[in-house]
Amino acid sequence: MESVQKTPVWLVTGCSTGFGRSIAAHLLEEGFRVVVTARGTERVGDLGDHDNAFAVALDVTDESSVADAVARAEEHFGRIDVVVNNAGIGYFAAVEETSPQTVQRLFDVNFHGVARVVHAVLPGMRARRSGMIVNLTSMGGLVGHPSGGYYCATKFAVEGLSESLRHEVEPLGIHVMTVEPSAFRTNWASSAQETQDPIADYDQTAGAARRAYRDSVGKQAGDPGRAARALLRAVTAPEPPHHLLLGAEAYDVATAQLRARAHEFQAWKDTTRSADFPMSA
């Protein structure tokens, strides 16, 4: 019994499909205790039947649902050691094609949903002076893409929140990691909604990107099972990374972006420095 009580407890959001399901399943296979969450527990019944699993209903858009799920998890297992903020939605449209209502929904799930979970788990982690917060963003949280403007904006926002949070909680023994996957063979692209009022001027940019996303379903290079194993290796490493790119495309695109920005910063260095007050002699 004592060894079981020492086994780390993970809470994973959005376990009904995709990354969340793969992560939760792999953790259970490896002997971890896992709080398996979805908006309806009937969608994760097979995972919840595992001896080390505790299935809880959790809607990241509902603050009371988040608070209740975290409280029930802490009561059941005694603590939460690692939280994986995976729940999220996609939407394909040019910026101009996206309605304010859609923008609000994207931010409510993808950004505010992460923040709600973070707020709920931090008191327990601070009390224990330990824990890990893992926020799944996207390659689109580092590099913008046509037809994904507001989706990318939510993921950039989570990156910024995570960066600031890291500075605040790492002195308290709490680690923060962002995970940036490229295209993986999940149902994300097929389940994402898209604009019903396309603008012809964007057909060769956002429109072409939408069609490419749809055509890629079932052919993406990324393997969710391998991603789950990679995430576990990173979280349990002696020195976990602050950022974990997943997939060859994520690595190639992200590093190319870094090189391009460094080149541009260098090219405009003199103009950049000229904006300060002159240094006194």
UniProtKB/TrEMBL annotation:
Domain Ketoreductase: 8-182
GO MF annotations, alphabetized: oxidoreductase activity
Keywords of this entry: Oxidoreductase
Record protein name field: NAD(P)-dependent dehydrogenase (Short-subunit alcohol dehydrogenase family)
Chain coiled-coil ranges: none
NCBIfam families: PRK06180.1
Keyword Oxidoreductase attached: yes
Stated family: Belongs to the short-chain dehydrogenases/reductases (SDR) family.
Source organism: Streptomyces fulvorobeus
UniProt superkingdom: Bacteria
Pfam families per record: adh_short
